[in-house]
Write a structure and sequence with these properties.
With about 220 residues, this protein is mainly α. The protein has 9 helices and no strands. The chain has one domain. Helix content is about 75%, strand content about 0%.
């Protein structure tokens, strides 16, 4: 199946490609930063960079039938991942490797991937609701694999808002598609919404409801 929107030359098509490559870059940076934090060697850091930057998109492409996945078919995704890994490797002594840079990179990648993943699923004919879920999968896939590879609990399984932020962005993009409104504005609005929700969950402590502990129930 071809991808007329992604291969087009219009503003929306160009914006999708730019968002997808930027999402790959910032997620790859977050993967490389996690590699530096865990003192991996150069190969391990590069592997983690590629995995974080591309796992979500690969999973999405396989599920919607866009095979071979773009991360394997298009050299730009590998190049962007390698560049991100090298940037983090070379400049890591001058970078504060506390958790916040990794979380900011992660939030940016989550936002960009949520909207591009949703739109790509829509372009392959998925129902808007399922396309929004594919956008969420695109956003959370790379971060989940990154965290698992360095033996950390994936952010998506923790209490603060993560997958819900990506889903909100996907729903916004899918809504714009359903209403046949200009795509570019909804891509930008969806990415900003996801980033804002994610950062607010970090700095304001926003989270989904949690079950009460046994001691709190008594």
């Amino acid at each position: 199946m071809d991808e007329p929107l992604w291969q087009g030359r219009g503003l929306a098509a160009q914006l999708l490609v730019v968002f997808d490559l930027l999402g790959t870059f910032v997620f790859a940076l977050s993967g490389a930063a996690a590699g530096v934090k865990n003192r991996l060697d150069l190969f391990g850091l590069m592997f983690l960079s590629f995995a974080a930057g591309n796992a979500g998109g690969v999973a999405r492409d396989v599920l919607i039938g866009a095979v071979p996945p773009a991360a394997i078919r298009d050299w730009k995704y590998v190049t962007v991942s390698v560049v991100a890994g090298l940037v983090m490797f070379l400049w890591s002594p001058g970078i504060n490797l506390r958790s916040w840079p990794v979380l900011v990179f992660d939030a940016a990648g989550l936002s960009l991937f949520a909207v591009t993943g949703t739109q790509k699923a829509l372009s392959f004919g998925l129902h808007p609701m399922m396309a929004a879920l594919m956008g969420m999968l695109t956003g959370i896939g790379g971060g989940m694999l990154r965290d698992l590879l360095v033996r950390e609990t994936p952010l998506v399984l923790q209490a603060d808002i993560y997958a819900v932020a990506a889903l909100a962005a996907g729903v916004l993009v899918a809504t714009g598609h359903t209403l046949q409104l200009p795509l570019s504005g909804f891509l930008i609005a969806g990415a900003l919404l996801c980033f804002w929700l994610r950062m607010m969950s970090l700095y304001r402590g926003w989270h989904l409801p949690r079950p009460l502990a046994h001691s709190e129930q008594e």
